[in-house]
Amino acid sequence: MTAPGVKILIADDSSSDRAAARGFLSEAGYSVVEASDGQQVLDVFQRERPALVMLDVVMPKIGGLEVCRILKAKASGYLPVLMVSTRNSVNARVEGLRSGADDYLGKPYNGEELCARVEVLLRTRAAFDERGEGVSEAQAEAARVPPTPEAQRRRMQEEFERAERYSDPLACLRIAVDGADERAAELTPTLRAVIEAQVRKIDLVMRTDERGFLLMLPNTHFPGALTVAERISRETRKSQRGVAGGDGAVTGFTVSIGVSFFPNKDTTTLQDMLDLVDAALERARHEQGGKICLFQHQGYLYAPED
Predict the structure, then answer these.
(1) Which stretches of the chain drop beneath a pLDDT of 50?
(2) Residues contacting residue 261 through CB under 8 Å, at least 6 positions apart
């Protein structure tokens, strides 16, 4: 596995950084393929099946941390991922490793150190291959540490900064079960199942309280966010949906949904976006439930049809 010709995928939106890494690795005898954004990483990986992925944290379309999670889920065996970033704080390294990365290297890096780390990771992969061992998606999921509120906030901040840097769209949804608090607590597992059936792997789903969830949808324009909100609203109103972990079924229920967007003239920070989505949710909840409130340049409230 460490012999010359082994294929490595370099994923970085900086052409100069890709060129530097390509020079170091090509000189060491490796075959190199490249990607310049998160979506392209997934496409190139599917086509080329590299032995190792060198992955920048901040990239357009899909951030590096989420790409790492998706790659780890897609890989049939052990796929080493080397995360690289100008962010080299302890928190940044810990979050990179928790996302599934096998090693983390701060920029700028030394070429010899890069090659040494790649060689170690490839030796580890070779050992797994010799033993016929791999990590299944279920095992990888079970091994993941549930993110702390601080880690979730950093993930949201990373997505906002990526959207701001590349002028990509970003949507935020807050969803809450309508009705009494006791019933809301009973129905949130069902709501989570509905949400997870409607979102992508790159979307962030976070529990906010006993009533509901916050969603962040990277690279999502107004129509896409509206579609997700409408589907969730319709699915929760359907009758005879089983309660996760329960013995019976419950009749349909309603949810209130607030939506905010970036870019937006009123949104210059992540906190702006969260404040607007909170305000949108509160307005929806005060309109007898079952409503979606969209905040773009002004509030817009409506009830989706079945």
Answers:
(1) 135-144, 240-245, 297-298
(2) 169, 170, 171, 172, 222, 225, 267, 273, 295, 296
